[in-house]
Amino acid sequence: MNIREKISSTIKTALESAVSSGKLQSTDQFPAIVLEVPPKKEFGDFASNVAMQSAKIFRKSPRNIAEIIRDEIRDSKLIDRIEIAGPGFMNFYLAENVIYDQLSEIFANLDRIGYLAPKNAGKIQFEYVSANPTGSLHVGHGRGAAVGSALVNLFRAAGFDVESEFYINDAGNQMENLALSVEARYLELLGIAAEFPENGYHGVDIIETAQKIIDRDGRKYLEMNREDRLKIFQDLAYAEKLDQLKTDLADFRVTFDKWFSERTLHPKAVNDAIEILKSNGSIYEKDGALWLKSTDYGDDQDRVVIRDNGVPTYLAADIAYHKNKFERGFAKMINLWGADHHGYIARVKAAMSALGFDSEKLQIILLQMVALYRSGELVKMSKRTGQSITLRELMEEIGIDAARYFFLMRSADAQLDFDLDLAKKQSNENPVFYVQYAHARICSLIRQAAESNLKIDGEIKFNLLKDETEIDLIHKIESFDEEIDRAAEDFAPQRISKYVYDLASNFHSFYNKCRVIGVDEDLAKSRLALAKITQAAIKRGLEIIGVSAPESM
After folding, report:
1. 49 phi and psi, to 5 degrees?
2. For 421, what's the count of Cα atoms within 13 Å in the CB-facing half-sphere?
3. pLDDT single digits (tens) 186-236
4. For residues 219 and 221, what is the distance between their CA atoms, to the nearest angstrom?
């Protein structure tokens, strides 16, 4: 339990005691206890408006409630004093040794830093990326991959039971168009005129796929009937694209617990879902097609699930897929979709409600667009392919660490302006370099300490750390667990990116002001221990967002 949690618990106990003694009226309702760090140190270590939030509950003035809380916790070993400001704000000043005791506890459990206690909240599923296996991943997919994998890491760090999943869109028109596209390029490369499909895939990778087929099998597919040829081309291209997709993601430090194939839903799972909706009156027929009564569940219009030619729509497959998810018993299901899917949310949730599921268990996070800039100019196309810039090209140009960190600097619901020049800079202007340099600097310090025979053994006198930069660094370290909790609560991995940056900044200030080697031995040991704790926190924070922590730079 960190200091903030301990103070919150102390306030809650004080309120319960005041109710028990009759100082406050009995109630089943208690206020939310929110603690903030004041903007100025003279206002205390923590501040709370809990008394103001309690006024309506206890029917007393906030100042009166604040005085009662203060009286109830007067003998606390945690808090030195409480000052009441204005109409009832409470400023808490910690007892002198509290932060040092907390730091000593962190140091004794250094291998658990950034790992919160397990939460009994059921299994949470994250489904993200889920790109069609028809071509290369682009930078938009890269943002989804970075955010999704960081959220999985973050929730696991916060103590949740998490499962990650990739939904492979390997059925329907896109797979037919993949086969047709490969066939057209195959014929063209053999000097045979071919009409390219209207909705075909124009990427250079399709030409490369066709060339591989020729290199291996030559012209033999010309003698085959077209239906068989297209089936073979689809299977070959699908296997190649899916393998490349998995490779690119793995290289980007993104892995999944489960890969779910859409093909497994056809036809039985789709038909079963449609039959249930028919039987409960949620589907009707119109113009030869089957329509979902999605307006009954908040959608702006009803939706076709089976076309008039008997072919299921994409929505029908998505209904079957999400039905499968609900039946697997997840406590919560989080989907990461591109912002262009905004209008799709209501219809999927409507279908789940129509099937009798609690649609509130399904949450959609929308990812806004990524705009790449080089030399201040918007970069629209790849110089190599003339197509959208791929995730692979981005990794090759700026590196995996920079790509992941920059994707995770902003909230997913905000457009990201990605400065390629900045991402490649080896200077403190580049935030990921700045953070990694702090970690490498600590590693270098530890090596120097070993060469100087400075060891962290025996009693560590953390109470010798009195400098303002030391205290700021300690407070930042002690807030790590709370930052993880808040980031998970808000689905905001960018908070961890900011946290490690701020922690690095605190460390650089400490390092530039406070000598470690060559000072009094007890002070040197305490400062070296503080540096090791900082190193562990930076490394763990970077691990959560999928960025490496180099030991030298």
Report:
1. -105, 25
2. 7
3. 999 999 999 999 999 998 899 999 999 999 999 999 999 999 999 999 999
4. 6
Paired tokens of 41: 């140190």
Cα gap 362→341, rounded to integer Å: 15
Segment 403-428 shows an average pLDDT of 97
Report pLDDT for 132: 93
Per-residue pLDDT, 4? 84
* pLDDT confidence band for 452 (50 / 70 / 90): very high
Does pTM top 0.85 for this prediction? yes
Alpha-carbon span 395 to 421, nearest angstrom: 14
**Mean pLDDT for the chain overall:** 95
pLDDT at 106 over 80: yes
What are the boundaries of each domain within the chain? 3-95, 173-251, 370-424, 431-544
385 pLDDT higher than 70: no
107, pLDDT greater than 80: yes
Q: Cβ contacts of residue 162 below 8 Å, gap of 6+?
A: 123, 124, 125, 126, 152, 155, 156
Q: What DSSP line would sit under 474-502, residue for residue?
A: HHHHHTHHHHHHHHHHTT-THHHHHHHHH
3-95 adopts what CATH topology? Gyrase A; domain 2 (3.30.1360)
Give the model's pLDDT for residue 374: 94
CA of 231: how far to CAs of 130, 135, 171, 179, 238, in Å? 23, 18, 13, 7, 10
CA distance 166 to 245: 11
Strand 303-306, strand 416-419: pairing: unpaired
CATH fold label, 431-544: Isoleucyl-tRNA Synthetase; Domain 1 (1.10.730)
Beta bridge partners of 286: 289
* Residue 306 in tokens: 């089976």
- Collapsing DSSP states into helix, strand and coil, what is residue 33? coil
